[in-house]
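Postdoc handover notes: sequence design on the structure in folder B. Input tokens:
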């Protein structure tokens, strides 16, 4: 993501016209309906999307004008701009951009296009989640306000696949509604907090896309590589310039066509149909045969790319290299590095600052991870880093996340060491100053310059000189150096940049270097995280692997040498510590010359402030020599003092130095038309500079002042041709260029080499250099307009300063003091009142770091009037607690229901298995009975026959015995023989029956059937078939028993799994019934009651809700005390104990 937060203060109708004009570029897939123009989402405090839908043009216009799309009700009344105040912003916009080469890759390959869509959607989702969790508002009276989290907020997204010129440019306009719901009503989003959060938001969006596994994998499948640091596609990045140049040509044609149409149709609005038609004409202008059928068909740009020399066949599919995962990173190392970067940049910082650094470090490692994995790692590393910080605010003060109140021990130690150095450099007695009157009269110095020159020329070990812009610091220094040389004392100048040092050396005639070069020569080193170390002679230099042998001869300082630090207001603490160490070792003295009202240090600053405080003696030059108009000169001093900015603006307006513009584009066009070569143009950000530079360049191309036929591409992505004014941004002694040095391009070769001539050096014969295409692409860009850091120190005839939301007081002062004859202020505003309000706000904007004391004072001021424990906090915390309890009860209900479902499913499965085992057993038993009956039937017949035969034999024996008893003498022998035969027969049959049936014979005829059945059954039991049947029954019984034992074990395991071992044991021994259905119903009821309580609180005014909460808590405390007292009465040894959780909650909480 590039760019920052932009506040929109127009109207719904104006915003609608813009999106409707761009409707042809929108991505219909995400819009859905044909008449939709934007995606709308509502977020809750957790960042979850609760509502999402498309907005029609009417709905979008209403939303911008604070009409809720869901209810149609107003969300508030907009505050109109008034004297000294700006109107309410209607929304804040940030843009999720895909780098140019990534957009081109999406145009080349549909699969990459789909993957990029997913990645950007994930980035949008993560940013929305973050916004919901961190966006705030302010509630309460002015002297007791609270920073309150949002309860809901609205975000609108507008997706575009192309730029206005139709070239591939995937981006999402994320519009954040400035009306949020919190503390029971619609309120204003704290946009000041949003501005402090934007760095973390941008880093998060970039990280999600750069780390997206699907995107990286898809690119690799097409032979393309994503550079995680820049976000560019390595193989396509060299063609960015070609694409941007063609885009600029089309956009230039389109601007001209739209202006002609509007001139021909006064009062009419350019609609989407005519816009599309003009786009087609703009595309084909001066390029016959190049007319696309549809500008949204990106294949036209694919053709442009191929004509520029890109051959997709050279990039075949290749296996993706092993990706770095978040598990490969040491979270403590990332946290420590983030803290180092925070400490290097400022004396105090916010939690958001730490998260931004954590996120960027993670991205620099080339991590591939899902958004959830990234979120978890970034949160953990941020927490670790924050835990090593402490607050500069007093105990009990409110500590909003967006207020810079965190610092570290390392910052305190570094500043303490610097203060000790400054104290050591302060003389016990004021040294005498040399007589400089003759020299100053010759040079024409005023009184302030004279006093300053005497101080600098003296032997005072620490001199502080402050001079307003245009007060003649250079002339003063030239005189002081001359006087010091007359007394045998050498002088050396160090400056923030090599370019400034070169100018100083040329103007003052003494050795000059950048302060970084000097301390580097003396062994000081610093890494990319801002951690400083020093090499001792003999150490290995980590930068080149060579042995450090000490400073070279031209960097050595001598005793008594005066080291003059020019632009000392930009001196950061770490560099100052290194310089003071070097000068103290050599016995050299230091003179700090600067202006605290101008630009501050890029990093931890306040050196000039601390030096002035400790030294207690400062020379101040306030008589101005630069400006032709004495009244304006006086006005710049009032700007410097920053007192009564409204009066300063009124005077600027009265002098005709304020120009109003309808929008940013009109401002750029005006400056392009009216600014002349050699004039300074100051903007607030690099993005603003690039936009204005592009516009100015287009105008120069149209006037024939710049050759656009053969160009190179600069680091800002803009083309550079012969005639362009450029600036180099990196020192390179081999090339002979310095940071912030300006050049006019003489010639550009086909391979992108830029030949340029130096400007602004004052030399009679300016130097020329040849800049390779690689250097230009990384470290050179157009320089018609620049930030205040690019123009500080310059003196021109006329200057233009563009005011924006990012402009600071120092930026205004620097920009408005460059011109000798005129200094013009450009403001995008509806009227002078609006412009005045913006000017006042800019003059109150102070991003400078001036040390811990200043950071502490700023933090205290930022929380002035804020309370940490007011009614809103009470209500918010209670609602958060209730929401968490309701959510916990909801999760418990879900868990109980899940447990019930598991138990029910297990019970049903067990019932089915039991039924199956029972059926098997019954089948076995039935089969055994059948087999037994089948075998026993003939045996029973036989047994009956044997039994009957036996009984018949006994009857015969009895009859024979009877005859024997009654027979006479003559028949006795026969009767005895018959009786013997009968007896033997009976005995034989009895033995036979016993042997055959293993039982005594039956005794009566009536007993034969039962006896025979029993005998047959016993005999059948020995049959193998019956045995097999019996074994089948036993097996069925064993299976049933095993199944039931398994069921018992598994049910016990399930109970342990669902409810814990303790509760499972209690249930096993009948000490507690398991009834998850009842527990689920109880949890649902509890959640509903809690939500109802929360809803009731939300429906009350904050103060009444707070009173109700306090009353409820008092009642709960009273009840607790009564219970404790009653318990002590019943048992004097009973101690107060915390309340028991609701039934079922304790055992389930452990599982959750």
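Designed sequence:
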């Amino acid at each position: 993501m590039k760019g920052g937060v932009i506040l929109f203060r127009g109207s719904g109708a104006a915003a609608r016209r813009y999106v409707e004009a761009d409707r042809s570029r929108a991505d219909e897939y995400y819009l859905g309906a044909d008449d939709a123009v934007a995606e709308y989402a509502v977020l809750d405090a957790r960042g979850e999307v609760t509502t999402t839908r498309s907005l029609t043009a009417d709905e979008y216009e209403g939303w911008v004008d604070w009409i809720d799309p869901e209810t149609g009700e107003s969300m508030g009344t907009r505050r109109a701009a008034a004297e000294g105040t700006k109107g309410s912003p209607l929304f804040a916009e940030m843009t999720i951009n895909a780098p140019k080469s990534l957009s081109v890759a999406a145009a080349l390959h549909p699969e990459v296009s789909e993957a990029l869509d997913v990645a950007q959607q994930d980035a949008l989702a993560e940013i929305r989640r973050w916004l919901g969790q961190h966006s705030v508002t302010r509630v309460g009276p002015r002297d007791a306000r609270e920073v309150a989290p949002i309860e809901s907020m609205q975000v609108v997204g507008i997706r575009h696949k192309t730029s206005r010129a139709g070239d591939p440019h995937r981006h999402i306009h994320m519009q954040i509604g400035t009306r949020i719901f919190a503390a029971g009503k619609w309120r204003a989003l704290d946009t000041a907090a949003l501005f402090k959060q934007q760095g973390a938001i941008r880093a998060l969006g970039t990280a999600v896309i750069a780390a997206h596994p699907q995107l990286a994998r898809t690119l690799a499948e097409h032979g393309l590589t994503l550079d995680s640091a820049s976000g560019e596609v390595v193989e396509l990045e060299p063609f960015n310039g070609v694409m941007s140049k063609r885009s600029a040509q089309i956009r230039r044609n389109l601007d001209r066509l739209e202006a002609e149409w509007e001139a021909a149709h006064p009062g009419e609005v350019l609609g989407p149909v005519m816009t599309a038609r003009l786009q087609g004409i703009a595309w084909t202008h001066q390029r016959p045969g190049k007319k696309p059928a549809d500008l949204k068909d990106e294949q036209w740009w694919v053709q442009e790319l191929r004509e520029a020399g890109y051959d997709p066949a050279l990039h075949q599919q290749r296996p993706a290299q092993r990706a770095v995962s978040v598990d490969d990173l040491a979270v403590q190392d990332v946290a420590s590095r983030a803290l180092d970067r925070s400490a290097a940049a400022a004396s105090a910082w916010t939690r958001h600052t730490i998260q931004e650094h954590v996120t960027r470090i993670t991205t620099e490692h080339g991590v591939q991870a899902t958004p959830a994995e990234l979120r978890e790692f970034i949160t953990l590393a941020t927490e670790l880093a924050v835990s090593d910080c402490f607050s500069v605010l007093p105990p009990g003060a409110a500590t909003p996340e967006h207020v810079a109140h965190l610092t570290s021990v390392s910052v305190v130690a570094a500043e303490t060491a610097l203060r000790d150095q400054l104290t050591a450099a302060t003389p016990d007695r004021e040294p005498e100053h040399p007589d400089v009157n003759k020299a100053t009269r010759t040079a024409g110095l005023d009184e302030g310059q004279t006093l300053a020159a005497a101080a600098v020329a003296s032997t005072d070990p620490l001199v502080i000189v402050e001079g307003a812009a245009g007060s003649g610091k250079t002339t003063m220094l030239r005189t002081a150096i001359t006087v010091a040389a007359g007394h045998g004392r050498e002088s050396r100048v160090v400056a923030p940049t090599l370019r400034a040092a070169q100018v100083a050396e040329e103007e003052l005639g003494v050795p000059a270097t950048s302060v970084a070069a000097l301390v580097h020569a003396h062994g000081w080193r610093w890494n990319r995280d801002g951690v400083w170390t020093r090499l001792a002679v003999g150490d290995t230099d980590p930068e080149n692997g060579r042995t450090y042998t000490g400073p070279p001869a031209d960097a050595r300082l001598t005793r008594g040498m005066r080291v003059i630090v020019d632009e000392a207001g930009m001196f950061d603490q770490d560099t100052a510590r290194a310089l003071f160490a070097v000068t103290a070792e050599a016995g050299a003295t230091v003179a700090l010359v600067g202006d605290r009202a101008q630009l501050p240090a890029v990093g931890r600053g306040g050196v000039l402030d601390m030096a002035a405080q400790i030294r207690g003696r400062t020379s101040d030059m306030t008589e101005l020599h630069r400006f032709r108009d004495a009244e304006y000169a006086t006005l710049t001093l009032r700007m410097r003092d920053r007192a009564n900015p409204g009066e300063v603006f009124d005077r600027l307006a009265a002098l005709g130095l304020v120009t109003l513009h309808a929008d940013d584009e009109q401002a750029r066009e005006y400056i392009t038309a009216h600014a002349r070569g050699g004039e300074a143009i100051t903007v607030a950000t690099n993005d603003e500079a690039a936009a204005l530079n592009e516009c100015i360049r287009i105008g120069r191309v149209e006037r024939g002042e710049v050759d656009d036929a053969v160009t190179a591409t600069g680091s800002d992505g803009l083309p550079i041709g012969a005639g362009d004014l450029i600036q180099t941004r990196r020192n390179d002694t081999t090339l002979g260029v310095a940071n912030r040095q300006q050049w006019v391009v003489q010639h550009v070769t086909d391979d992108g080499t830029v030949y340029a001539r130096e400007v602004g050096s004052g030399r009679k014969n300016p130097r020329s250099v040849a800049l390779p295409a690689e250097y230009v692409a990384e470290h050179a860009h157009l320089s018609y307009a620049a930030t205040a850091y690019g123009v500080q120190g310059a003196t021109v005839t006329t200057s233009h300063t563009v005011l924006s939301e990012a402009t600071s007081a120092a930026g205004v002062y620097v920009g408005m003091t460059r011109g000798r004859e005129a200094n013009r202020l450009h403001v995008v505003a509806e009227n002078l009142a609006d412009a005045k309000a913006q000017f006042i706000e800019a003059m109150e904007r102070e991003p400078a770091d001036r040390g811990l004391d200043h950071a502490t004072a700023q933090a205290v001021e930022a929380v002035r009037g804020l309370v940490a424990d007011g009614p809103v906090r009470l209500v918010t915390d209670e609602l958060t607690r209730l929401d968490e309890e309701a959510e916990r009860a909801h999760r418990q209900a879900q868990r109980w229901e899940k447990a019930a479902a598991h138990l029910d499913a297990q019970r049903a499965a067990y019932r089915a298995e039991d039924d199956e085992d029972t059926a098997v057993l019954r089948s076995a038993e039935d089969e055994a009975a059948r087999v037994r009956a089948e075998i026993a039937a003939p045996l029973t017949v036989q047994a009956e026959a044997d039994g009957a035969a036996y009984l018949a034999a006994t009857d015969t024996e009895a009859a024979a015995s009877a005859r024997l008893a009654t027979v006479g003498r003559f028949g006795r022998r026969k009767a005895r023989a018959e009786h013997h035969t009968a007896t033997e027969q009976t005995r034989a049959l009895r033995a036979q029956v016993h042997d055959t049936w293993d039982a005594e014979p039956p005794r009566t005829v009536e007993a034969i059937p039962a006896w025979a059945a029993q005998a047959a059954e016993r005999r059948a039991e020995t049959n193998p078939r019956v045995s097999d049947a019996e074994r089948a029954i036993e097996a069925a019984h064993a299976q049933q028993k095993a199944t039931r034992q398994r069921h018992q074990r598994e049910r016990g395991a399930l109970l342990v799994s669902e409810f814990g071992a303790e509760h499972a044991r209690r249930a096993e021994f009948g000490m507690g019934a398991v009834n998850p259905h009842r527990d689920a119903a109880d949890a649902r009821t509890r959640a509903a009651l809690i939500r109802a309580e929360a809803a009731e609180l939300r429906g009350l005014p904050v103060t009444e809700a707070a009173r109700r909460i306090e009353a409820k808590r008092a009642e709960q405390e009273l009840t607790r005390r009564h219970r404790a007292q009653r318990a002590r009465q019943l048992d004097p040894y009973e101690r107060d104990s915390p309340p028991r959780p609701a039934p079922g909650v304790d055992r389930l909480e452990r599982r959750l």
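Context for whoever picks this up: The chain has a mean pLDDT of 88. Don't rerun without checking with the PI first.
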